[in-house]
Amino acid sequence: MPIGNPMHPRVSWILLVFWLSFSCFPGLISSAVVTLKSIEIYKTHEMLKSVKPVVYFRCKGENKTDLPDVKKPNEVYNFKGEESWQPLTNLTNNKCKRCGFYEEDSFIKSDDIFDEWEFCPSDFPHGIYTRIKEKEMNATFACPQCIPLATASETAPDSRNEGKGMHVFLVILIVMAVSTVIIFGMVAAYKYWQKRKRQQDQARFLKLFEDGDDIEDELGLDNVM
Ligand SMILES: *[C@@H]1O[C@H](CO)[C@@H](O)[C@H](O)[C@H]1NC(C)=O
Ligand SMILES: *[C@@H]1O[C@H](CO)[C@@H](O)[C@H](O)[C@H]1NC(C)=O
Ligand SMILES: *[C@@H]1O[C@H](CO)[C@@H](O)[C@H](O)[C@H]1NC(C)=O
């Protein structure tokens, strides 16, 4: 069918537009704020037990966030998320940061590490993340804005992948429906145009015949005469 070829660019255009509009949507949320909900340290790293620890949080390349209240081990400190030093940090699309809790050292040696890890938006599929390091600390973070980031994340395991699969399936379904409608429309238009053309050709042909008859009549008359 001659119509087969010119249809391809059009269908792929629609496919592209659909793909772009759907895949860009989760990208609209670019930054999510992370707050500390609670923390408990299980020990301090100071040799002199009388010295109060100075605990702080830091992500690589960012400023320190001191936790002025956290002074005693084995005590749970809860926060509202509105404290002067909150939020702790921002997380952006599908990008992890290297962050940790540290204790400032009163001697010249480098600061002690409670825990250091890759902090990712996908840690927050339900907006809450608990980080536990044995014998060191237990901290709970909140990031409600991370939920769409976690859902959009490629690395998100388990139930989140189902959502993504469903999403892709829906997009494919819509694209297929739209292309089917377009193909049928174009086939119908082509058929109609073909029919019209045939009718016109027929009319022209008949007209030609009538004209031809006239000429023949004239010629016949000439011959007789
Ligand atoms: C980090 O601290 C410095 C100096 O206190 C300040 O100028 C800078 O704006 C801070 N950066 C961020 C991201 O808060
Ligand atoms: C975090 O993002 C908010 C807005 O999304 C911005 O106002 C704030 O400065 C950011 N903080 C850091 C530390 O990047
Ligand atoms: C860590 O802290 C959270 C919140 O305070 C608590 O629910 C959880 O049981 C703690 N986990 C451990 C292992 O201490």
UniProtKB/TrEMBL annotation:
UniProtKB keywords: Membrane, Signal, Transmembrane, Transmembrane helix
Domain DUF7953: 31-144
Keyword Repeat: no
Keyword Transmembrane attached: yes
Signal sequence coordinates: 1-31
Cited Pfam families: DUF7953
Bilayer-spanning residue ranges: 168-190
Listed PANTHER family: EXPRESSED PROTEIN
Protein name: DUF7953 domain-containing protein
Organism phylogeny: Eukaryota, Viridiplantae, Streptophyta, Embryophyta, Tracheophyta
